[in-house]
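Lecture notes, part 5. Sequence design as translation. It can be helpful to think of inverse folding as translation between two languages: the language of shapes and the language of residues. The source text, in structure tokens, appears below.
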């Protein structure tokens, strides 16, 4: 099975750049930009996680259905989308989340 990683990623990269540009030009509020991408990350998680859970149950009980390869395909495709949108999420919340990656400077008491 061949996975289309670039073809799947391009609409999301374009969509993010589009909504981010609208936000930077003050055509939409930052809250709307964030809500759009939080919704997309939630939907991607639900579909990818749900497909993964179904695949797990099918494997555990030895169920082989004709839909299993398509389910695996969409599980992987939406997992890639989820990873990409997570990068967008870090970009949006960088100021508040950078302390996860770089510890805050210690204050010197005088």
């Amino acid at each position: 099975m061949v996975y289309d990683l670039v073809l799947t990623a391009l609409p999301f990269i374009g969509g993010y750049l589009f909504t981010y540009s609208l936000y930077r030009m003050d055509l939409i509020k930052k809250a709307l930009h964030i809500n759009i991408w939080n919704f997309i990350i939630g939907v991607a998680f639900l579909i990818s996680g749900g497909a993964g859970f179904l695949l797990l149950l099918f494997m555990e009980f030895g169920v082989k259905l004709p839909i299993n390869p398509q389910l695996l395909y969409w599980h992987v495709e939406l997992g890639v989308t989820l990873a990409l949108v997570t990068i967008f999420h870090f970009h949006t919340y960088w100021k508040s989340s950078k302390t996860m990656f770089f510890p805050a400077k210690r204050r010197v008491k005088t």
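The translated text above is only one of many valid answers, since several sequences can fold into similar shapes. The chain is about 75% helix and 0% strand.
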